[in-house]
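Practice problem: predict the structure.
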Amino acid sequence: MVKEITRDIKQLDHAKRHLTTSITTLNHLHMLAGGVDSLEAMTRRRQYGEVANLLQGVMNVLEHFHKYMGIPQIRQLSERVKVAQTELGQQILADFEEAFPSQGTKRPGGPSNVLRDACLVANILDPRIKQEIIKKFIKQHLSEYLVLFQENQDVAWLDKIDRRYAWIKRQLVDYEEKYGRMFPREWYMTERIAVEFCHITRTELAKIMRTRAKEIEVKLLLFAIQRTTNFEGFLAKRFSGCTLTDGTLQKKLDSPSPSTNPFLEDESTPEMEELALEKGDLDQPKKPKVPDNPFHGIVSKCFEPHLYVYIESQDKNLGELIDRFVTDFKAQGPPKPNMDEGGAVLPSCADLFVYYKKCMVQCSQLSTGEPMIALTTIFQKYLREYAWKILSGNLPKTTSSSGGLTISSLLKEKEGSEVAKFTLEELCLICSILSTAEYCLATTQQLEEKLKEKVDVSLTERINLTGEMDTFSTVISSGIQLLVQDLDAACDPALTAMSKMPWQNVEHVGDQSPYVTSVILHIKQNVPIIRDNLASTRKYFTQFCIKFANSFIPKFITHLFKCKPISMVGAEQLLLDTHSLKVVLLDLPSIGSQVVRKAPASYTKIVVKGMTRAEMILKVVMAPHEPLEVFVDNYIKLLTDYNTETFQKILDMKGLKRNEQSSMLELFRQRLPTPPSGPEGSGSLSLLAPTPEQESSRIRKLEKLIKKRL
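Answer:
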């Protein structure tokens, strides 16, 4: 019933919709037919202003007839529109060719309104029409440039490269005045002219440099590169780079950081860098990052194949710089002692790295590819040469001490100046070289990071200055070892005197012995000088203290075993001397200093452990050797040393006869734990087997150490 009632209504709805569509389509058809006729007429009359508006309307109306292309009349109108578009394109190109002929002289006068309207029509037509107009106009506009700067012309060479850039600047101004309003703004014609000029210039320069490669000198090359990069900077300020399709982006520059390290400073001009270094003006607020330059390398990339000239020049310059450093060092001599400000870093070090930075920035502006790798290789070469020739080569040489020393001469030495191997100036020189090596080590690490930032990402793995950093670490170790050896050698005569004294004849315990006074004197002479000159590198002074303690204490114990025989009073005197040395060694890091600092825990632990062992040895020597069991148990308790040789040395120090020693050694061997099976017998060395509690403690310590390192 509902279908019967609504059937007529539904038919009326369909009829209304179809009628509306038919009326609309007929109106569009009327507009299309009239528009095509008008379009053809306006095209013949070159009324491009009206054509631009009409053509867009016709194109929009034609879109409604895509589904009616099967109707012959509609298809015919569509083909007429296509023909009109083709004729328009050809006609506009012909008009531009007539106005701006490729050959011959340019027509006088400015652009016409007809051409301006023609550009609006070209925007609607096939994009190839617009590209052809742009291409022909730019080619005609730059034709004069190709003639003026031909390869055989004098102005084409690098020394007159400024004239190229001056010419294009004049042309751009001329274009803006004459043709600025003819082309639509969204065509970016000024930028396109500049970009095409850059492509032509890069090609022409590459060609002429290949031909005259032997005439390229480093100064000429750098002059041309500087002028070219300045021009590229001018383009970046003037244009957005939106027309570029193969522009390379310049890496962002880093903002400054408050440090004397040249590789942490803002990358500005060399003059600004030198001024900042002179004034020490390193705490300036950070500058905003410079935006990317899309024109970087658009011309200057042509210089990259010839950068070997620059690299060879830097190799030569750095070689001369190192030679000058060597000559200046010999002429000026070692740095003067400076007790107030600590050991001075050699000025040549800062000069070298400032020069490195200048080269790195300059080269990175030219190329971020293989030339940067070649420059890195040069840097590595002269970092090693600096370490060898300037640092290691100027470390004082140690001389072997002469023999024939007598006890009286050793004990009668006054100030110890005859014994000390290095003078005050030599000690300061070692500290200065050590401080310089530490500066070089830190700065080389920064240099590696900066080089990796500058080079292409694909080449970062090829930049590795670890070997050079290891070289400076070796110089540091050598310097510390020299300081230790010097103080160690100065104390040797006193220890020799200790071992040759008749300790069995000592009748009473007095003040500390002369040999102790001598050791303390040498420590007080050397350590304050070393500490003050290593004030800027405190960790290396701590290393010096630790290495000296690790060298002196075992040597002291070795000489202690040579003191034989020893009476009870002699052992007491030695125990007093040992305690005096222990106190001095514990105070060694701050000895002679007005500011008392607590010694590092790592150093204190070494001194306490070593000197306590020396005290225990003397306490065992002082103990009565009868009854035998008590003496052996006392030895094991105090020294916890199951080495038979050590026990034998204790017996020799006590002056016991061989028959007495044999019975005591037999008893000592009986108290030893069961030796492990294998080739290691119960001979010279038998270690105490750890208890389960001790083993558990060792495992816990090992676990803590592993966690700490991880």
